[in-house]
Amino acid sequence: MQGACPPPEIGALPTHGRLAAVCGVRDERLRCGRRWAAVRWAAVRLLPCLWRGKYFSSGNEPAENNPVTPMLRHLMYKIKSTGPITVAEYMKEVLTNPAKGYYVNRDMLGEKGDFITSPEISQIFGELLGIWFISEWIATGKNAAFQLVELGPGRGTLLGDILRVFSQLASVLKNCDISIHLVEVSQKLSEIQALTLTEEKVLLERNAGSPVYMKGVTKSGIPISWYRDLQDVPKEYSFYLAHEFFDVLPVHKFQKTPHGWREVLIDIDPQVSDKLRFVLAPCATPAEAFIQCDETRDHVEVCPDAGVIIQELSQRISLTGGAALIADYGHDGTKTDTFRGFCGHRLHDVLIAPGTADLTADVDFSYLRRMSQGKVASLGPVKQQTFLRNMGIDVRLKVLLDKSDEPSLRQQLLQGYDMLMNPTKMGERFNFFALIPHQRLHGRNHQTNACQSKPSPSPVAGFGELGWR
Ligand code: SAH
């Protein structure tokens, strides 16, 4: 039932533009040298990318572009029976509803999908992240065992590149007992991950009703398990990885009004059949408690699910050690309306044909830092360009270029590098952020050195120079 006094409609909320890049997919094609054997190469062709920075209006699409999807029908039914829903509820239903959710039954990544991510563009990205984990493992005393836990692993491409580095550096990791744990809600993507990572050489164990819904062994013989929820991953010494994961978690949106903060809700448009629109809640809603008292912006997005995950990661890292590496596009508590949709590498009106397009909002790193509640130290956000340069991307590119004589491959390597590093492409838009135990920085004045005006370099690779080679 909708409220007796209909909430005011928000005219055309501006929403920013996921990196909508029209890019090729990776395939196995480059083998170079013994040290980096079986290197996979990415991006068959890299075409110019469409930018996300553009403002984008919601709710102005002509009716003929608004097909009644099963998800739209489901949402209209829900709104008719219980009233307008929050943007967070909308995002959650549209993206991860177990039956009809956008992420649940499709492969949306790559050229034929809706968006492209860094690991799908260049193998170097995953390789450098693999080095990061090994570097942290060494710096923290070479624990006898570690779990590598990835949240939202997509096609498994990033993990595949990381595991290749682990294999190449087997002599460094020898005697370390490694296991892989994937947190994934998508049935379809978990099948693709299994194929990418295990080649199903050993039969996978499946049990849909169990918190560990799939189990197997990777191509290089490492045990691998799939979960729907981080809570179910064993609480052991772990390295956590989340790349373009936090941006798909549901956000609540709030608008400052003369009457105070009002939450943005989604309602049925009374003027046009089968259409949704944004409205403002007529009075305060419980989620308002998430807004900071000293907030100066007039529009904010808050992601409580991200807060819960950061609290869990912080708790785990403070108890067992390890680290979390989070990479995403986002800001440090400065942006306002960043909610947007992507379909076929183009911006897409978030309220049109729900279930057929990706929905995303920039990650607020200041909120993630706050949610760690001082249990761990946080580093960043630093720009992707800075992080990858600190990790030695230039050296790695040179090695690959020197080893490849095919002009088209050299071209692809250079284009992939440009896409990851160029400040006008992904170089400045994407950020790296880490959670590490306080002891990791112990004895080092990481913030500022009393004798220097400049901050002293971070001892953690990526946030400072990579010390270990
Ligand atoms: N990390 C990958 C894929 C990013 S897309 C890459 O960079 O290429 C987001 C991923 O998160 C997908 O694998 C999606 O299925 C997964 N996902 C989305 N919501 C999730 C949730 N609530 N819990 C676990 N996984 C989720």
Structural write-up:
The protein has helices at 70-82, 87-96, 118-121, 123-139, 157-168, 170-173, 187-198, 304-320, 365-371, 384-390, 393-403, 407-421; strands spanning 14-16, 20-23, 46-50, 55-57, 85-86, 145-151, 177-183, 205-206, 212-217, 223-227, 238-243, 252-257, 260-268, 276-280, 299-302, 322-331, 340-343, 346-348, 358-360, 363-364, 377-383, 430-436. With 469 residues, it is of the alpha+beta class. Strands 6, 7, 8, 9, 10, 11, 16, 20, 21 and 22 form a 10-stranded mixed beta sheet that branches. A hairpin with a 2-residue loop joins strand 17 and strand 18. Helix 11 packs antiparallel against helix 12 (407-421). It is globular and about 65 Å long. The model is unreliable at 1-60 and 445-452 (pLDDT under 50). The structure holds S-adenosyl-L-homocysteine. S-adenosyl-L-homocysteine binds at residues 95-96, 103, 109, 117, 119-120, 152-154, 158, 183-186, 189, 243-245, 248. Interacts with NDUFS2. Its main location: mitochondrion. InterPro entries: NDUFAF7, NDUFAF7_sf, SAM-dependent_MTases_sf.
